[in-house]
Amino acid sequence: METRIEDEMGQPINEAGVPGEICGRGPHAMIMYFKDPEKTEAAMKGGWFHSGDIGVLDEDRYISVVDRKKDMIKTGGENVSTREVEEAIYLDKRMEEVAVIGVPHPKWVEAVTAVVVPRKGEHIEPDEIIALCREHLAPFKVPKKVVLVDALPKTPTGKILKRDMRKRYAELFSKADR
Q1: Among residues 1, 29, 101, 160, which one has the fewest Cβ atoms lying within 10 Å of its Cβ?
Q2: Which domain holds residue 123?
Q3: What pTM did the predictor assign?
């Protein structure tokens, strides 16, 4: 099995620490989606299976998965891994659940937005979460807003529905926020 990381133009990334899509080919890779030639063509560009996972190479050429391609936030010309921001927020033990999403923003294209559920009986202010993120993340990765909720939307199997949150909070940054 061959594995590589590709940039958005389908070119291999060989530099450590540069994120790209994890792709593979070989006898164990799928060859097509059943009765779905369009989906097959998109997934098998250039003869490589495109996983939808974003990864980075380390100095020893090992790959670490950092996010899902559809969850990556593009803000102010930078890519932000939602998982990295979520892990920073989880450093506060008062967090029950965290989901970081990108929502439309008039200046940044997308704004890093954290939707958090505090543990029962715990209280936290959005400014505390932003301050925590400033300690552990580059400035462009710090959430522009934090939304406190009682529960995150999930599938019956417990998977967090980020696409539903992106729709729900699409108008969070109004023209007044410019």
Answers
A1: 1
A2: 72-177
A3: 0.80
Q: What are phi and psi of 97, to 5 degrees?
A: -145, 150
pLDDT (tens place) for every residue of the chain, 178 residues total: 999 999 989 999 999 999 999 999 999 888 889 999 999 998 999 999 999 999 999 999 999 998 888 899 999 999 899 999 999 999 999 999 999 999 999 999 999 999 999 999 999 999 999 999 999 999 999 999 999 999 999 999 999 999 999 999 999 997 555 4
Q: Burial code of 75-114, b = ≥16 C-beta within 10 A, e = fewer?
A: beeebbbbbebbebbeebeebebbbbbbbebeebebbbbb
Residues 88 and 101 both lie in one domain:
yes
For 160, which DSSP code? B
CATH number at residue 61: 2.30.38.10
Alpha carbon distances (Å) from 63 to 51, 103, 123, 167: 13, 28, 38, 32
DSSP 92: S
Rounded Cα–Cα distance for residues 152 and 19 (Å): 28
User: What is the number of structural domains in the chain?
Assistant: 2
